[in-house]
Each structure stands twice: as C-alpha cells, then as structure tokens.
C-alpha cells in the first residue's frame, strides 16, 4: 500500500485549511507538515498553532517533520495540536531513544529522518522504537530542490533492512521519501522501496487559483 503526503511547505499559507481539504479530496493520504527553526535548517516555517488550526479541516493523518534543534521540548505541543506522526533528525537529539519514547508516550507514531549523507547505522539499535524511516532525497530546508539520485541506492538498502526486520518480528515500519518527488520519478522511487511519498512543489505547484480540483490530476498520476 502506498501513501501520498503533500507537503504544506509549498501550499498557499494564506489559505491552508482549504489547501488541506483540497489535496485530501484529490486523493492524498496524509498531510506532511514541515517545521523549520532557522537553526537546525536555514529556514523558518510553522509550529503547533498552525497544526492546531488545520486539524479540524481533515481526518487524514498529520505527519509532522521536525527540522528543529533541540527537538524534545516541542513534541508535547505537537501531540496536543493533533499530530499523528512525528519524525526528527537524529543529529538534532542528544538522546535518540528518549526522543522516540517521548513521541510514542504522547500517542503519536515516531520516525527517524536521514539526511542525504547521514548513515543508516542510526537504525542499528532503534528499530524496535520506530514506526517510520524517512530518507531525505534533498538537503532539508527548502521545497523545490532536485532529487539526489544516490538516494535510490540508500532506499534499496533501507528496504532490505526493514523487510528483514518485518520477517523477523512481524512488525511493519514505513519507508518514507522526501524531496524532489515528481510524477516523472515516483515509479522509480517506489521500485527502490519507498511506500510513503512526500511531494510539495509537484502537488502545490499545480496552481494557486481557487479551483478545488487543480491538484486532482497530479495526485491521481502519483
Ligand atoms: C524539505 C522538506 C520537504 C519539502 C519537499 O526540507 O522536508 O518536505 O517540502 O518539497 P519538494 O517536494 O518540493 O521537494
Ligand atoms: Zn519534509
């Protein structure tokens, strides 16, 4: 089963509730919510108040991608604001196991995010505490960047690892990809092993007029 998670980073921030409703109506599965702090990454976006504001607009899972450092103190706020999935970068946490437990103790699914050059060995002692692995296929901070081709080999390695884990434990861990995902490369990315696809500019680049169906064809093509 595949999931499409449009990233609000490229949405019209003046009309977020409407954008959320439109992409879900168009067939998207999750809402990807990029949180940037102008410290861990060189950009500043949205926080728990905005998560709370969009929560009534959809029943779809809100997938919060934290690009913030430190990470722990903001987690309870996002859980209260209605987040369903919370992911963070291991470099941004002093105690990865503690941060994963904090997310799950607040009733959310937890995931680790790997930057393009971050090795997968962070998974070695964490798989039992993870619900999703997110591989970045661009450097975090901005939408609209190009997919880094080397991510495909990393995806295949992660897929192998997660399949072996599922065979041994019966527990499925999702494998998400984020950055430069387009209609033209999504099949290749799926073949490399991803099951959950973040797409920002590819979806919201489809226009900012008020036609509620302007995303339908892009999401259907994915
Ligand atoms: C980048 C964000 C992504 C971004 C993806 O740091 O994590 O979620 O919005 O945007 P596109 O799909 O345009 O590469
Ligand atoms: Zn993201």
UniProtKB/TrEMBL annotation:
<dbReference type="InterPro" id="IPR000056">
    <property type="entry name" value="Ribul_P_3_epim-like"/>
</dbReference>
<feature type="binding site">
    <location>
        <position position="65"/>
    </location>
    <ligand>
        <name>a divalent metal cation</name>
    </ligand>
</feature>
<comment type="similarity">
    <text>Belongs to the ribulose-phosphate 3-epimerase family.</text>
</comment>
<feature type="binding site">
    <location>
        <begin position="178"/>
        <end position="180"/>
    </location>
    <ligand>
        <name>substrate</name>
    </ligand>
</feature>
<feature type="binding site">
    <location>
        <position position="32"/>
    </location>
    <ligand>
        <name>a divalent metal cation</name>
    </ligand>
</feature>
<feature type="binding site">
    <location>
        <position position="34"/>
    </location>
    <ligand>
        <name>a divalent metal cation</name>
    </ligand>
</feature>
<feature type="binding site">
    <location>
        <begin position="141"/>
        <end position="144"/>
    </location>
    <ligand>
        <name>substrate</name>
    </ligand>
</feature>
<comment type="pathway">
    <text>Carbohydrate degradation.</text>
</comment>
<keyword id="KW-0413">Isomerase</keyword>
<dbReference type="InterPro" id="IPR026019">
    <property type="entry name" value="Ribul_P_3_epim"/>
</dbReference>
<comment type="function">
    <text>Catalyzes the reversible epimerization of D-ribulose 5-phosphate to D-xylulose 5-phosphate.</text>
</comment>
<feature type="binding site">
    <location>
        <position position="65"/>
    </location>
    <ligand>
        <name>substrate</name>
    </ligand>
</feature>
<keyword id="KW-0479">Metal-binding</keyword>
<dbReference type="InterPro" id="IPR011060">
    <property type="entry name" value="RibuloseP-bd_barrel"/>
</dbReference>
<feature type="binding site">
    <location>
        <position position="178"/>
    </location>
    <ligand>
        <name>a divalent metal cation</name>
    </ligand>
</feature>
<protein>
    <recommendedName>
        <fullName>Ribulose-phosphate 3-epimerase</fullName>
        <ecNumber>5.1.3.1</ecNumber>
    </recommendedName>
</protein>
<keyword id="KW-0119">Carbohydrate metabolism</keyword>
<dbReference type="GO" id="GO:0004750">
    <property type="term" value="F:D-ribulose-phosphate 3-epimerase activity"/>
</dbReference>
<dbReference type="Pfam" id="PF00834">
    <property type="entry name" value="Ribul_P_3_epim"/>
</dbReference>
<feature type="active site" description="Proton acceptor">
    <location>
        <position position="34"/>
    </location>
</feature>
<feature type="binding site">
    <location>
        <position position="7"/>
    </location>
    <ligand>
        <name>substrate</name>
    </ligand>
</feature>
<feature type="active site" description="Proton donor">
    <location>
        <position position="178"/>
    </location>
</feature>
<dbReference type="InterPro" id="IPR013785">
    <property type="entry name" value="Aldolase_TIM"/>
</dbReference>
<feature type="binding site">
    <location>
        <begin position="200"/>
        <end position="201"/>
    </location>
    <ligand>
        <name>substrate</name>
    </ligand>
</feature>
């Amino acid at each position: 089963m595949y999931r499409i998670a449009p990233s609000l980073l490229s949405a019209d921030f003046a009309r977020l509730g409407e954008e959320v409703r439109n992409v879900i109506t168009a067939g998207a599965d999750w809402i990807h919510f990029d949180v940037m702090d102008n410290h861990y990454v060189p950009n500043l976006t949205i926080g728990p108040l905005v998560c709370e504001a969009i929560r009534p607009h959809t029943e779809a899972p809100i997938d919060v991608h934290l690009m913030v450092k430190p990470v722990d103190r903001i987690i309870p706020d996002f859980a209260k604001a209605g987040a369903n999935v919370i992911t963070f970068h291991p470099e941004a946490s002093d105690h990865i196991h503690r941060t994963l437990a904090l997310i799950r103790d607040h009733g959310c699914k937890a995931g680790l995010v790997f930057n393009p050059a971050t090795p997968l060995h962070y998974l070695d002692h964490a798989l039992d505490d993870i619900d999703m692995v997110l591989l970045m296929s661009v450097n975090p901070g901005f939408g609209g960047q190009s997919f880094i081709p080397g991510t495909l080999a990393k995806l295949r390695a992660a897929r192998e690892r997660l399949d072996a884990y599922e065979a041994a434990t019966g527990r499925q861990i999702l494998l998400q990809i984020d950055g430069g995902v387009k209609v033209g490369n999504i099949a290749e990315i799926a073949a490399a092993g991803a099951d959950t696809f973040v797409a920002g500019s590819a979806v919201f680049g489809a226009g900012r007029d008020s036609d509620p169906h302007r995303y339908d064809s892009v999401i259907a093509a994915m």
